[in-house]
From TrEMBL:
GO terms for molecular function: S-methyl-5-thioribose-1-phosphate isomerase activity. This is Methylthioribose-1-phosphate isomerase. The active site is at 243 (proton donor). Its EC number is 5.3.1.23. The keyword Isomerase applies. The record marks 163 as: Transition state stabilizer. Substrate binds at residues 53-55, 90, 202, 253-254. SUPFAM superfamilies: NagB/RpiA/CoA transferase-like. Belongs to the EIF-2B alpha/beta/delta subunits family. MtnA subfamily. NCBIfam families: eIF-2B_rel, PRK05720.1, salvage_mtnA. Pfam families: IF-2B.
Amino acid sequence: MKLDGVSSRTIWLDSDGWSVGIIDQTVLPHTLVRLTLKTVEDAAHAIKSMQVRGAPLIGVTAAYGVALAMRADASDAGLDRAVRFLGEQRPTAVNLRWALEDLRATLAPLAVDARAAAAYDRAGKLAEDDVETCRQIGVNGLRLIADIAGKKGGRPVNVLTHCNAGWLACVDWGTATSPIYQAHDAGINVHVWVDETRPRNQGAALTAFELLQHGVPHSLIADNAGGHFMQRGDVDLVIVGTDRVTANGDVANKIGTYLKALAAKDTGVPFYVALPYSTIDWRTDRGADIPIEERSEDEVLRVQGKLANGDVGSVLIAADGTPARNPAFDMTPARLVTGFITERGICPASREGLKSLYPEKTSAAA
Ligand SMILES: CSC[C@@H](O)[C@@H](O)C(=O)COP(=O)(O)O
């Protein structure tokens, strides 16, 4: 996608052929800072501090993190250490485990001196695969938007989304936003309600920024406003991303997703979850077993933005000493989800639905 008019991806190999470039998402949209990762520690820090975030991008960054680690120590112990260390950085997005297991399986059978080159090659392939997978999710999701557009006679199709499941969360295109970009590019009149997504405001800071850059009509709304717009008939469709879908179709996504799904159910608004195959956790049977990341109280107690002096900083919004809790994700039961939009097509949010698209997979309870 484009950033200030220039085609960009969220992660790339620098011109030296081994260090890894990323966009620092902690200061967007106010400042565009590109960072260079040179060590596995840099990659781990980027994931933990959310310089990179979003399930697919976390996975690809971890893959490059293994490649950086292999430059320093490609022994069996070095590979084990890198996989364990990177895997500890964030618990909920299963793409992290998926990418690390892929790298381990690719590298372990190789001679030690072949591992670094093979790791770069594999990380590059995972990045390219993510681009094509997300593009295909968009092709499949576009049909839903086009169907609604056909019934609305030129009036805008209103899509609500939560958090950032856009191209900044992936390598390109995004998952939830890919159908939106493709609908807009196809000339469909589409408008997006963007949940601000407290506490870190990924909707305000990242999704609204992306849509603005691409010229897609949108309105930023307070998290609490979604149900109101659904009740009034102002939302045709919800599309969100996910960090992990369990074998029975339960969905973990950014905190607040569950409430949107409840409101959508009550108001009869279709609620779709867009995901690549790498987000399905076939080994975990139900959403209650997904580890939910707990983050710092500060993210709730403070709000980050551009200060009057132009710096990016934060302000305290509660009395000093106020205790807070900050679960970063919640679980939406499959029964509240209308369907999954994947690279292989659209299916019901259920064990059977997932199996219909991925017959070669076996789940824990299958
Ligand atoms: C295509 S990204 C899907 C999810 O990763 C996204 O919706 C989300 O919850 C991101 O959370 P974050 O905490 O910003 O990494």
